[in-house]
Amino acid sequence: MSSTIEDGGGDDDDYGGEEGLDDFPIVGSAQEILDDKPSASSSSFDFPAEEEVSFSGKSENYCVCFIDMVNSTVVTSGLASAKLVRYYSIFLNATAAIAKNFGAKVIKNAGDCLIYYFPATSDPASNAAFSDVLECCTAMIDANKVINARLNTEGLPPLGYRISADYGKVEVARSATSNSDDLFGSTMNLCAKINSKAPKNGVVVGADLYRVIQSIPAVAELYNFEQVCSYLVGPEQQQYPVFSVARRQKRNIVNPFKVMPARS
To answer: Which residue ranges have biased composition labelled Acidic residues (predicted)?
Structure first.
């Protein structure tokens, strides 16, 4: 059973955050700058000479993924600082290792969230690359028991997480203080939005990735798909379905904490 969710038609900031400027009162010279009204303080406003984030002008179509811990604030509220650090370290390093083993690049982590993408999916004809996306996501789900066993041995509470994946155009940027690329655009925003629609320890994919997978029968037949909801997106409020994904055959997961040699 699926439901329809209004997206509002506009792009959200920070990978899908729902608050907008109207939710935060703006006072003083900041409001005058937005209104294009000069003031004594606004005349001295200058942008920094060196940009922290610079856009390369390069656009690519990539598969992007978000993995987000469930109820992490509640679960970790009683942990001492050292335990808290260890808790997040096990989660982030285990999931990052799995992502890298399937050819993904980690963009960033936000403590309870890891964001990564698959560079090889820039080639729409690479069936193996799109297979890796779903294999990676479902491997992370299968690894949950192994991760929780490690947490248990260290006296830490179990964790659950949700994974979302989608495919589409992104803008590539780079930070002046980082050697890694960052990605921006509606594909990133929507992938973040649909994450909450995944079941605990489950995976959802957006309609664009779903269509690509369905065009590869040898990959699609390995998974069960079920529409869980749809978003109304864009100025024309078009339906954008979201699907849960589960592997038809379970497998025994190898050590998720070991990073395999890089693929050639």
So the answer is: 8-22
pTM comes to 0.77
Question: Contact 111/76 with Cβ under 8 angstroms?
Answer: no
Report the chain's C-alpha Rg in angstroms: 20
From first to last of the 264 residues of the chain, give the pLDDT tens digit.
566 665 554 444 444 444 443 444 444 444 444 455 545 454 455 655 555 555 555 788 999 999 999 988 888 888 899 999 999 999 999 999 999 999 999 988 777 899 999 999 999 999 999 999 999 999 999 999 999 999 999 999 999 999 999 999 988 776 656 666 677 688 888 999 999 999 999 999 999 999 999 999 999 999 999 999 998 888 888 899 999 999 998 777 667 667 666 655
CA distance 164 to 197: 9
CA distances from 88 to 13, 58, 159, 171, 199 (A): 25, 33, 10, 29, 21
Q: Are 169 and 61 in contact (CB under 8 A)?
A: yes
- Residue 93: its H or E element: helix 81-101
